[in-house]
Amino acid sequence: MCRIIENRTFSILLIFIISFCVYIPSLCSEFVWDDVITIERSSFAFSSSGIKDILIPPVQGDKSALYYRPVIYASMVLDKALWGVSPFGFHLTNAFINSLTSVFFYIFAIMTLTAFRRENAAPAAFLSALLFSLFPMHTESVSWVSGRTDIFCGMFLLLGLIFHTMSAERKLYALPAGLMFFLSLLSKESAAVFPVLVLAFDLLSRRIGRGGNLTRYILYISVLGLYIYLKSRAFVVIPDVPGPDSPGQAPAAEPAIRTADYLGDLKLIAAAYLFYLKKLAFPFYFNSYIASVPAGALNVIISSLVLAVLAAVAIASRLKKEYLGAFSILWVIVALIPAAAVALMKIASTPLAERYLYIPSIGYCLLLGYGILSLSRRRNQALFLALICVALFAFFTFTRQQVWNDRVSLWRDASVKSPESPVTHINYGMALLDSGRYEHALNELQLGYNLGSRGDGTLKALAANNIGVLYIDSEDLANARLWFEKAYNADHGYYKTYYHMGLVNYLGWLLDDSAYSLNHAKVCVQKSIKIKSDYAMGYLMLSKIYDAIGNAVFACQSAGLALEYGLNDSLASHARDIIEKN
User: Fold this and answer.
1) What is the three-class DSSP state of 251?
2) What pLDDT is recorded for position 252?
3) What whole-number distance in Å separates Cα of residue 278 and Cα of residue 218?
4) Which of 130, 164, 330, 564 has the fewest Cβ atoms within 10 Å of its own Cβ atom?
5) Which residues contact 186 (CB under 8 A, 6 or more apart)?
6) Left if phi > 0, otherwise alpha if psi is -120 to 50, otherwise beta: which for 321?
7) Residue 468 to residues 348, 507, 559: CA-CA distances in angstroms?
């Protein structure tokens, strides 16, 4: 078997095939979570003409967007051009890019093992790449279309490292290395750790003193600077860390308060590290919606001890000239910095997420694959351990994809594993509502509404709005009005509440032909548009109201704005009908 694995072409083909085949179930999956909004309902916005503005954003006054990921947008545009709005095509791209990333991991592993003068480089690289391709924590990144940010970022990051390694012999390879680094940054911000990883590799492989290194480092820092400049034109570069000096809070006058706050941040970071390290070591328990960071005192103590042990092992490995161990541990710790920053800055829907382990798992799988082959005294023992790990990884990766098959299965699983989160129950209820399971949907939405009462009024309003929609579908306008009023009381500024209040009054007008109902519908929808000025659905509803009133000019104008701000094909036909009619 080892002789076969020595054939690198065969190994590359085998790794690609295995990596692709394990994710075949995902090709039958639907759009879930953010996919529904960003792809299924907003695919009209995917246009090649928009790529330039995404890549070089126009300077804007309100720099409120958090994400600058032109490569991901371009991939969505290409998918739509190839497949239309087909979940199969988008999932196929994810599976294909993940398989390519596994191949590039194999090539990088061979180069790394060779640079650190490790024996059995080919078998160790093959096993490491196989474990990476089957790693269970990658399921979220691959099976969820919007999770492709980590896949693309990981692919370009590995390509950048491969070209950087090759640039030690031929300096011109530094140029494609810089380009790949730039593309990885344009895929996800996590790639900012690239210069640190490059420096660690050069130090431990004793290439730091070679000629041209300074030029390469300047190139990489320049690429990072260019990325920050482009992002800063219209996007938030570094989000504020919540604390005593955050907007809306009183300044922290006492040094003791500031110190306590900084200690709290350190505790949060330590707890996040422990969470991710446990997920790397035992990647067999999944949760797609992790609502909070388990930052209890015990977790913080354990995390501090684990990080201290890892640092000690890395230093000991360096002193014993076991450079691969030191590099792999350093990779994991450095690559987890962006994930810990997300937990601290609260810039994502959840403070922790399994998809953030995609890039850190490169260092872990490299160490695991090499460790299995080098620490076992006999070849049979190594083969047995390798087969056990491969079988476990493949089983959990394959079976986990069932949860990502559709919205109902995803949010049912999340609501069980995060029962105290209103978001999981609201999303589960919305999925059930869309599937026509009204009674069960009502139970979940009411549970989400009750849980939302403990905190965010917007969540409470979201739940109440969807309960109102459920009653509209059931043709119970009286209860629908009641729940939209509850949504309004929960959050006066939620635009969908006003839209739905307008909708229910418009439907009431269809039943009783009351001028009051139609006028009240107009006022409510106008309020929703005032809050969200580019709300296409609001303009479409307003065009229907003006059409009913008999104001042809305003009906056409509103329908035109609805088309301008974007509607899917079905709704766009309604807007065009109004324009043609008037």
Assistant:
1) coil
2) 44
3) 36
4) 564
5) 55, 68, 69, 70, 71, 227
6) left
7) 28, 13, 25
Q: Which of 138, 126, 137, 69 is nearest to 97 (CA)?
A: 138
> What is the C-alpha to C-alpha distance for residues 290 and 407, in angstroms, rounded to an integer?
17
SS3 at position 352: strand
Q: How many Cα atoms sit within 13 Å of 159 on the Cβ side?
A: 19
Which pair of tokens denotes residue 268? 């949060």
**Cβ-Cβ contacts under 8 Å for 111 (sequence gap 6 or more):** 162, 165, 166
Distances (CA, A) of 82 to 54, 96, 133, 199: 20, 14, 26, 40
Cβ 276 vs Cβ 360: under 8 Å: yes
Distance of CA 515 to the CA centre of its chain: 47
Tokens standing for 517?
A: 């109902």
Spatial neighbors of 487 by CB under 8 A, at least 6 apart, are 460, 461, 462, 464, 465, 468, 494, 497, 500
Check residue 240 and report its DSSP letter: P
Name the DSSP letter for residue 343: H
Residue corresponding to tokens 């490790």: 118
**Ordered DSSP codes for 107-174:** HHHHHHHHHTT-SSHHHHHHHHHHHHHH-GGGHHHHHSGGGHHHHHHHHHHHHHHHHHHHTTT-GGGH
**Among all chains, which residue has been given the structure tokens 């309902």?**
41
Helix axes 323-335, 337-345, angle to 10 degrees: 20
At residue 65, the 3 state secondary structure works out as strand
Distance CA 297, CA 396 (A): 31
Mean pLDDT by 10 residues, the chain (582 residues): 71 96 96 84 68 75 71 92 91 97 96 84 92 97 95 97 90 94 96 95 78 84 94 67 39 51 83 94 94 84 88 86 90 95 85 95 95 76 89 96 95 95 94 93 94 77 94 92 93 92 92 84 94 92 92 91 84 88 76
Q: Which two tokens stand for residue 192?
A: 């900012």
Residues in a beta bridge with 352: 290
- The pLDDT score that the predictor gives to residue 239 is 52
